[in-house]
Amino acid sequence: MAPNSWSLLQSARAIREGKLSSVELTEACLDRIADRENEVRAFAFLNRDLALAQARAFDEAFRSGRPAGPLGGVPLGIKDVFDTFDQPTECGSLFFKDNQPLADSAPVALLRRAGAVILGKTVTSELATPAPGPTRNPHDLRRTPGGSSSGSAAAVADFMVPGAIGTQTKASVMRPASYCGVFGFKPSHGLIPRVGVLRQSRLLDQVGSLARSVADAALMAEVMIGYDPRDPDSRPAPAPGLAVASLEKPPAPPRFLVVRGTPWSRVKPGVEPVFEAFIEKLKVGGLVADSKDLPGDIEKAAVWIDTVMEADTAYNYGHLYRRNKNLLSPGLMATIEKGRNISAEAYLAALEQAPLVAERVLEFLRGYDAILTLAATGEAEDTPESTTGQPVFCAIWNFAGLPSLALPLLKGPEGMPVGIQLIGPKLGDCVLLRTANWLAEHCGLITD
């Protein structure tokens, strides 16, 4: 098995134990990219010499006695909305063509500190909005990989990198993870600082990780957690031990609360029976998987998130619209125009609901370890030029800043991946990861 197909944890361990060098792993990833990039188109920027120079520098430092770090020598993909001092950050937009930041974003700086090799910049849809980019789904090149973290999900799914990072404003980590058949993790709002990351919405923008196991996704997220006073929502609190928690055994089999609700009206044909069969299998195995309707005061978050996102998009991207709106996609132009007409009263009223929804979910979850639902409406869309899919299964949880995780547990009627999504209470990340890893193991997935 080629090193590029190993998990992140396997790779980091092999490097620490001297069984593999960072250069060997990076070369294997670069060779895979060379074989597949023309078809998958996952990368917005890639410089083989730069990637190998980082890997050689790590190997030399490690041999001289410097600690490897938790991600020591492992190459990662970085969504092209994160500033990188040595690689351009173009955000999928002509407005940022050839833009070269002077410093790393906070998450990238923390990844480097943990020993990671920043392999390249992965494709994002336009300014992290729904407008599709060039990336295709590696399982079926006629389909979308989802968005907006499209390149990150596709690169991980196609064994180009062991892990990658993305962002989510509505569903931009969960949906690509579901469509591409990988694990996607988005921690609680405020844990990962967003300094140097493209800003669409202060309330909604959150950083996440994509990988081929729960533990890999947890480790990547953990090293990005830290207090940064430049981010007004950053939390001055000790970082939770996500990586350790993800591998712990729960004291008892987890209890799942299965939620359907309004989004189920958009589920694609043939997917609901697959989901129902999965739930029944859990129940036959003796697990608690109770079903409840989502309370109306939580479902309303689907309306509030649109109000916030549209107004924030108009505010944060309005200067681009005024400079040259013709460089924006028609969909983004329409969102900005709609957002400009939202009243301050409506916007502030919607903002006030976010912490209330988070508290209401905590009450709703009492007695259970995680909410269980779909991560997307079904298999990846087969019209990649026009859509990246619907965010309806993720928007509510993202609005409330809750931790969520997509697991590639199902196959749809056409044989494409369909992700299961687990959601936990605000700051309940450790329990959520432990529960997710347990479920993955219970379903026979290799997680390390």
Compact summary:
With 448 residues, the protein is an alpha/beta fold. Helix content is 40%, strand content 14%.
Give an overview of the whole structure.
By secondary structure, the protein is α/β, with parallel strands linked by helices. The protein folds into two domains: 10-247, Amidase signature (AS) domain (Amidase signature (AS) enzymes), CATH 3.90.1300.10; 255-300 and 349-442, Amidase signature (AS) domain (Amidase signature (AS) enzymes), CATH 3.90.1300. It is built from 15 helices and eleven strands. The protein has helices spanning 8-16, 22-40, 48-63, 106-113, 150-157, 174-180, 214-224, 242-247, 271-284, 296-299, 301-324, 330-340, 344-364, 395-399, 429-442, and strands at residues 43-46, 75-79, 117-122, 163-168, 183-186, 206-211, 255-259, 288-292, 370-374, 404-411, 417-423. It has an eleven-stranded mixed beta sheet with strand order 1-3-2-4-6-5-10-11-9-7-8, sandwiched between helices. α11 (301-324) packs across α12 (330-340). The chain is globular. The relative contact order is 0.14.
Question: What key attributes describe this structure?
Answer:
448 residues; alpha/beta; Amidase signature (AS) enzymes; 11-stranded mixed beta sheet
